[in-house]
Amino acid sequence: MKRSLVALSFALFTLCTQAQVHTPPTSTKAESHQVVGLTDIKIDYSRPNMRGRLVFGDLVPYGRMWRTGANMNTVVTFGNDVEIGGKKLKKGSYALFTIPKVEEWEVIFYADTNNWGLPEKWDESKVALSTKVKPIGSDRKFETLTVAVNNVNIDYADLEIMWEKTVVPVRFKVPTDQLAMQSIDETFEGPTIVDYYGAAEYYYLTNKDLVKALDWVNKAIEKSGEKIPYYFVRLKSQIQAKGGDKIAAVETAKWALELAEKANNLDYIKINKDAIREWSK
To answer: In what order do the strands lie in the sheet with 82-84?
Structure first.
């Protein structure tokens, strides 16, 4: 009898740990990603359905703060600083809360995104930005709550909250021109030290023009300032040796050895010592 009870208990335990009921959630999880100009915008939220209910003014009362979604916070992430209603919103992730009214909505970007619905205790210091927006009536009925980036332009777009027959467009501006000009300026200033080093190494490894390779590695070394990487100098010695200038290669290898010793890189210490011996013959 005792064995039977043990066996039954084990069987029930196994069944309980293995069996799982899978049912669809009433509010489905959604993620979206949109690039506006040069700025990434991501939205992560849960989408409730109307299911025959009157939404605004009933399910979502007017004049009260709304979680603007279901379950965990609706989170909007901006990859760069943006401007909303003439105010700056720093790049980062924000919970999206709203206070719907018939004529005007208040849209709030809240710095704490780890809430199930509204925060238990509202902290005004965490309000990164709030703005007033006029809702727009729509001929189309949105059965499922939709939060999306629409009307995408090169330097602005609308974060739209759409449900029932209401659209709330939150216009935000992105710093496209600033980012583009910065990129242009950096590009026209010339390649970076990594670009020079990479090009020199590729030419050395593929037996291309060693004069160009030497010029590029010299530029990489010159632009490195006080902290010259020992592997930059090592590459220069290799290019010199492959080009037939063993005397210069030995002197450069001694410099690379000194830098490797300061960095305590045992591999490069050995490599340079071996090279000095070989090229000195």
So the answer is: 87-89, 82-84, 156-173, 136-150
pLDDT by residue (tens digit) across 55-114?
A: 999 999 999 999 999 999 999 999 999 999 999 999 999 999 999 999 999 999 999 999
Is pTM beyond 0.70? Reply is no
> What residues pair up with 159 in beta bridges, in sequence order?
149, 170
Q: Which residues contact 64 (CB under 8 A, 6 or more apart)?
A: 99
CB 96 within 8 A of CB 68: yes
Q: Can you list the alpha helix ranges (DSSP code H) found in 137-265?
A: 176-188, 193-205, 210-222, 230-242, 246-263
Task: Determine the pLDDT at residue 147.
Answer: 98
d(CA 41, CA 129): 17
**What CA–CA distance (Å, rounded) separates 234 from 238?**
6
- Whole-angstrom Cα Rg for the chain: 31
